[in-house]
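FAQ
Q: What does a multi-component entry look like?
A: The components come first, one per line:
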Amino acid sequence: MTVTEPAPTSRFVRADGPDKVTGSGRYAADLTLTGVLQAAFRYADVTHGRITRLDVEPARSMPGVLAVLTAADVPDVRYGPFVADRTLFARDVVRFEGEIVAAVAATSAEIARRAAAAIVVEYEPLPIVNDVEAALAPDAPLVHADWASYGAADPIVRDRNDASYASITKGDADAAMADADIVLSSRYVADASHAAPIEPRAVLAQWEGDKVTIWSSTQVPFDARAGVCETLGLPANRVRIIVPHLGGGFGGKCGFHVEAHVAALARAARRPVRLVFTRREEFVVPDRRREGMVVELTTGLRGDGTIVARTGRVIIDNGAYTADSGFFSQLAAMHVAGPYRIPHLHVEAHLVYTNHQPSGSVRAPTAPQACWALESHTDELAAAAGLDPVEFRRRNVVDTGSEGPSGQTYDEIGLRRCVDAATAAAGYGRDLPDDEAIGVAVGWWPSFTAASGAFVKIDGDGSAQIVTGAQECGTGAVMTLRQLAADELGMSPDDFQLVYQDTSVAPYDMGATGSQTLFNNGRAVVHAAGQVAEQLKRLAADHLEAAPDDIVLADGQASVAGTPSRTVSIAELAGIAAGGELLIGHGSGAPPSAPALVGSSCVGDVGMAAFVAPQFSCHAVHVKVDRDTGVVRVLGVSAAHDSGTIINQIGARGQVEGGVMMGIGQALTEGTRYDDAGRQRNPAMLEYKLQTCADAPPIHIDFVEIPTPDAGPRGAKGLAEAPNVPTAAAIANAVAQVVGRPVRQLPMTAERVWNTLTGEDGVS
Amino acid sequence: MSLLIATTVDDALAAMAAGARPIAGGSDLVVGARHGKAPLPDSLVAIDRIAELRALDVDTSGAVRIGAGVSHHLIESHPVLVERFSALADAAALVGSPSTRHVGTIGGNVMNASPAMDTGAPLVVLGASVELRAVTGSRTMPIGELWIGPGRTAASPDELCVAVHLPAPASRCGSAYVRLEYRRAMEIAVVGAAASVTLAADGTVTSVHAALTAVAPTIIAVAGLEHLAGATVAEAAVAVGDAARQQATPISDVRASDRYRRHTIAVMAQRAVDAAARRAAGERVPVPVNRALGIGAATGGPS
Amino acid sequence: MSELIGRELTLRVNGIDHPVEVAHGRNLLSVLRTEIGLTGTKEGCDDCECGACMVLLDGEPVNSCSYLAAQAVGREITTVEGVMRGDELHPLQRNLLDEGGVQCGFCTPGMIMSATALLARTPDPTDEDIRIGLSGNLCRCTGYARIVAAVRRTAQEHGVS
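Then the predicted structure of the entire assembly, as tokens:
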């Protein structure tokens, strides 16, 4: 099709806005059905144990209980996108505190909870794997004794508790290190953290005959459908997932969670069943925790501060099951290499089973922690080389035409311009009181390429619809599709209604994951709208007695180019089409392909060593440290991003502001603590501290806009995850300047900062 | 299973004599019941619409009677309390969020007897007493004698806290409450300290009192500060900090280690003495001290 | 007069009396959402820690998750559904949309209630006033900047009566 360059619509209007500000918009927990039952789960009572007795009779016999299910009541299916290590209900062994042993549907939530508690479960204790490093020891107890028998995706390399091993090797790192003028090693440890969307998840399921409709607060409805189909043995066309408004996700609602449990309960009870998570369940149950991580890095420099070699080892806490985390090891390896020119590299990463909640994609998985470790290490390197940290980065970061750590050569990229913009906006280098400092970090993140589809149609009255598989999780990415279609058709975004988040209506889309909505579904919508535009041009050409190629669509009109008086409204054309060939476009388009790698070898390669349309960023953060207590306060953030063309300015700024704020939380106050048995000690909003409005600093944003070939619509890259990558790292570097050395644990809580100040952080 | 919405203290006392449990805002009880800490009592009496309990009176001597149903919001914004009983206003302004400050009351706070309550340490240094009433009569006791353990008070189940009394402060007396917080709102004290300082004309200390939050099973007064009469403010601040560190018996929990609490309680106590002395000297230090000077968290706010 | 409240009670919500029958100990949030059918008020944490359940009680902000429904008898309850002026968006609602202060929207009703209470009490708030006034409402999407901007703009327009 013809690629046009329409004038972007400047004003952004959220189609879902009025629903959301008036309270009329419905979220999953707002829905109910006549005769609905309420569900409750019985979770594991121990974090690792073999079930020796499971008696559900006390629950079944309770008045008001209509269904009780255990593993015995559902197909014996072991599932998982990378490693098939999971079952809907515990089979024989429980491996973390949030594991579902049984499910109950009852006439009230209270009865369901009491019935779930009445189920008798006895366990033979198994050794608890609580330390991710110890879990790699050859004699460590196994989280999955039968790991070798599990099915797994082809590229995944596994060994005992190591669920996914990856390495990137380029050149000869050991030899180059031996020749380096300066060699420096660092070790960093990051705690697990959480997506913590404000909406806890909810699911409502209803069967009609052999078809089930499931309303779910998922970010990935097609993934959820696939999970239900796989675990309950159903074809895709008998499972319909509908997502009402979604109350945020940040990755926490990616993947397939409890939809199948609720559907199975509804089938057994022959009634609709509803489940609404408490905040505690939202913290403990989903396989979507941000992974804890241990990072060890050694880098060799020439005397002038040029990086010549790096070796690194990353150990990632996978938790008890492998959700979508199979690609984390390779992605973490890329992030500890970083957007630097490194001729000799050997980094390896292990994704290691423990008896913790499973890890899964939370906004830029692995990146904020790995970037924090790498960029803290980078400031240490700069100091060792006697260079200013920003100057050190200018000398070593990748630039247009240079080769990245894994051997990818970049088209025009804006990383250096990001460094210039962020440091200038922050006033880097100015005099500050000795308890204040500005820290700088750079980050990167891929765009994700995936199949995606959409329909665009214009009805007889000239009003239009976009029917899309894409999922809106709040970012505004789906809302922006109206803008793309409108620009393609010379109409206004307000002319389009969105029909979305219904797997039985729209074509496939990967969902609100990987910052991919506008990147991939935008392409699909542009294609679909382009088809309708061609139809309109043919109709207009007939009507106006001109050639189709001479028709211009603008301002709701079709006109003959150069002859504005020869014009017909799109609404009139739609009326004509309604009596003949209907105005319908369907789009998908070919996803961009992965760039080539030269000179490196990757073990456990799941395609993450080459970044499609890579995004770059630099954050400069001004902090103040209370030296007496270690409390850190962020006074200002300057964020510069190369995410290609920005299509929706308001939406894009919102992603940066939100991502930065989440990054501040991860840096300072958000960390999951475990007890000796691997149970979370702080699964509540009071003890797991998100930043409040009173903590929010001013955030300055620069977009370095470089239209990127082989990317999304108009040269756009992804955006939603990238702003979450370098904030914690930049804060760390500012804190280290005040404290005199880095805080080697994340989050950098007040107590940890104080321990570092007093030299009692246990790190030499 | 019932709720009596009482409009007089007598009605409330009668209900309590019959076994009802009083609730003001009810947050602690409702949240506690839902989290399975304690079932909601069958019989409740709501005391939030009793006019006598909502009153805050200043008498001609400068003493204050704060009805048990007075909200944190009223305390943080009442000019007399802000001016002359600043430590209490500092604390009230830090409680939870704007909504919890509207719903939460001084009486509910005091009777909940949490060692982490923000208003407790200020009440101790301000010499507060608490007025308890039952159908059988009333009694008043120093606030420090009310708390006998975490969540436990010396009041009997039929006794209602009706008011907190604060004696008039001496001239050239100032007070402050400072708490360690990890974020600027929605916090619970990791540790906190209140101080009240009276200055002589030459700027030396006439007397100093201090009390500590979240470092013992109850709010505790710092003992043995009498010898600081005649000391400079700087000397007194250091001495109070040292005494706080020694007298604290903190626990380790998910919020902080005992070691870190023991260190930061000294910092908070020292800062509380400093801020109280500045107020005693007539300097206007806005309420709450934490946000005015940034001394609970680090200095500086969004510009 | 003291009043004994049983299972049958009347709640006045957005100017309309709603007779409801509720079990002892039910919180206001669940009664609003289920018996009265106003689902705009959200449940995010059930512990006064997120602010999604914020409503106004006689004009003051209250976490309805932790407030007994029976205790609200005789008080004027305002929820997000009661904020519009006829068929028109309240200026605060409009400004939240225009400034980009709405993303997932789950915190939005609670934010609107806290901001309404703030502007009623402090018609000309400083940015610090706004930040403290909204500090009981967690938002994970926006970083708060656009929400603060919307409240500031509403105050500047004198849009709140």
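Q: Is there any commentary attached?
A: Sometimes. For this entry: The longest helix of chain C spans residues 108-121.
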